[in-house]
Amino acid sequence: MNNLAAANFVSKGYDIIIAIATPSAMSAHAAPGCRYPVVFSVVCDPVAAGLVKSLDNPQTGATGTSDSLNFEGQLKMIRAFLPDAKKLASSIPPAKRIAAQLESLKEAAKDFILKLMKLESPTVQKSA
User: Fold this and answer.
1) Predicted TM-score (pTM) of this structure
2) Residues 6+ apart with CB under 8 A from 62
3) Which of 10, 38, 52, 110 is the most exposed place for a label (fewest CB within 10 A)?
């Protein structure tokens, strides 16, 4: 959803706006004249995106779910199954929006004495 689409939604007088992904949620939430609740999903960090003050108490007219991952739980499981593992490879898409999650994984991996090896995923090419 771009700014024009968000403004169009607001002008239609809908009772609620549902936005999927961070850019859509940010556009809807920032749309001029938006007095409607914005419900978002697939947002990595709603606090950093300025959508909510906190996940427990949004205070902004927006609410939703985060797709942030529980890396500590995943790393505990990896360590239980592979106690001698030294390196962890993570295939990541070439997008800036996952930088916070990647940093969280890197920090969590240190606690499990694992070195994170990043593998850049190629971009998907659209067929003609």
Assistant:
1) 0.59
2) 25, 29, 37, 38, 39, 40, 46, 51, 52
3) 110
